[in-house]
Each structure stands twice: as structure tokens, then as C-alpha cells.
Amino acid sequence: MSNKSEHHDLYALAVLRKLDQLLDEPLSSNQRAKLEQALSACKPKMHTVDFRGELLLHFARLYYVFLMGLDRRSEAQTVESDLRRKKSPLAHILYWLVALWPLYIVIYFVYFLMTNMPKLI
User: What H or E segment, with its residue span, contains residue 72?
Assistant: First the structure.
């Protein structure tokens, strides 16, 4: 059995166990088989590269995920992301003002030093 199908089987088992805990009566074997079939039908799409790990620090446990694969998102999701990318001209102006603010400070400091250097020495 491949690692990807093992992961899916573990997911299906976890869902079935949780359902058994939440339901008053356990699922019949027929219901359980139908539910497993439904879970396998809506199996998440796998990525070509799926690299996951965690960093254990003494104060926290951090995780990281690197996924890469073909873009299989739906047309609606693509249209939605395009709409999010469209910003007003004011947003662009504000972005550049904030992004270039440290540069303005450095230029002003250099100008101050150049104009006041003879007075400081």
C-alpha cells in the first residue's frame, strides 16, 4: 500500500472512530461500508511534492508545509483571486509610501549630515 493511500485510510478510520463516539448507536456494517466509499470518493487531491515537518522548541512546537503541484483550482477560485489582486490606486500609493519610508529616513539623515558636517567638526 502506498504512503498516500495509507494517509487516506488513516483519515477515513479517524472519521469513522469519531462518528462511533458521537453517535448513540454504532454504525451498521452496511452504513460503515457506504461511508468509507463516500470518503474515498472525495479523497483530497495529492500534490507532486508534499513536504511536511515540525520544529520542536522548548517553548513551542512549530510545523511547516511545502506543497507543489499542478494548479487544479476551479475557475471560480481563479476569478476570485483575480478580484482580490485588483486594488485601488490609493492602495498602491499607500503601499509605496509605507514601503519607501525607511529610505526617506536614510536619505534625510545623509542630507542632514552633509549640510551640518562643517558645523559638527
Answer: none
For the CA atoms of 69, 73, 75, 78, what is the dihedral angle to 10 degrees? -80
The verdict on pTM exceeding 0.70 is no
For strands 61-68 and 49-56, give the pairing. Answer: antiparallel
Q: Give Cβ neighbours of residue 65 (< 8 Å, ≥ 6 apart).
A: 51, 52
The domain segmentation of the chain, as residue ranges, is 3-86, 88-121
Report d(CA 119, CA 44) in Å as an integer. 70
Helix/strand/coil for 93: helix
pLDDT (tens digit per residue) in 34-78: 887 777 666 666 778 888 899 898 898 999 998 888 776 666 667
Pick the closest to residue 8 from 31, 39, 35 (CA basis): 39
